[in-house]
Design goal:
It comes from Allopontixanthobacter confluentis. Keywords: DNA-binding, Transcription, Transcription regulation. GO terms for molecular function: DNA binding. The protein has 12 helices and 5 strands. By secondary structure, it is an alpha+beta fold. The radius of gyration is 19 Å and the shape is globular.
Length: 261
């Protein structure tokens, strides 16, 4: 694990009322939550206790690259222009960090993954990707492989503004435990899905555009129908998929084979 064993600095995190550590409290909340969107919010809230100001989670079909066109990414805290860039799948596929860290099978700093990738030799598009990261202030961060049943593995990352956070081994261990708890719970929720969801052709169209990150207004323009009608379809999809937000609906639909990207 690429974190110092002796941290010179730590965040001031408060234990629970019964002496419960913040990481234990976060894991308990995550493990009893049944809404994927809420799980992501709990992860982000807990991560801030350890100095992480940005977070991403790559949900990827089995045996696919963590940056493939089929990957669904939930992220928060990144600069808006970076999110727009990363939503472009032709840009995202040049990000080697998630797959490199998954191959290593351990928590790794972004900087270490970059250095080792460059040392092994890489192409110009990847070097341009690394430069875009630096230009966007994405310098200090860690990537974490998380593992689920039946090869349902995923990649999670945390970004920091203060580089001293990465030197805190206890914080790194806590963030890794939180990431694994979140992924485990998401996998469990997928196993509880209904096997009898039937979508109309239009519902499937709307869901596929949701999975590609389009807003209701965007989808209305693409399908040439009103935003109010799209909103109705979205509500109907949430009901059928037992989801409360777009990422959760997308993950469930992909897991059930209702859509493909």
């Amino acid at each position: 694990m690429q974190c110092s064993s002796q941290a010179s600095w730590q965040f001031d995190v408060q234990a629970g009322a019964a002496g419960e550590a913040p990481v234990e409290r976060a894991i308990a909340q995550i493990s009893t939550n049944h809404v994927i969107g809420d799980i992501f919010r709990l992860v982000r809230s807990a991560a801030r206790n350890y100095g992480a100001v940005r977070h991403s989670y790559h949900f990827t079909p089995i045996f696919h690259s963590q940056t493939s066109e089929e990957t669904v990414v939930d992220s928060a805290g990144f600069p808006p222009h970076w999110i727009s860039l990363y939503e472009d799948r032709s840009f995202r596929t040049h990000d080697p960090i998630p797959d490199y860290i998954m191959g290593r099978g351990e928590l790794l700093r972004w900087s270490t993954a970059i250095e080792e990738t460059v040392a092994r030799g890489t192409d110009e598009k990847v070097l341009q990707y690394f430069q875009a990261m630096r230009d966007s202030g994405l310098v200090h961060g860690i990537g974490i492989p998380v593992f689920g049943p039946r090869n349902r593995n995923a990649y999670m990352s945390y970004g920091f503004d203060d580089p001293r956070a990465i030197d805190d081994s206890d914080a790194c261990s806590a963030l890794r435990a939180i990431a694994q708890a979140a992924h485990t719970q998401i996998c469990l929720l997928q196993d509880r899905r209904s096997d009898h969801v039937i979508l109309s052709a239009r519902e499937k169209q709307v869901l596929e555009w949701i999975a590609r990150g389009k807003s209701n207004t965007d989808i209305a323009d693409i399908l040439n129908i009103s935003p109010d009608t799209i909103a109705t379809y979205v509500k109907r999809l949430f009901l059928k998929l037992e989801a409360r937000e777009r990422v959760g609906a997308t993950i469930k639909a992909l897991r059930m084979g209702l859509i493909s990207l």
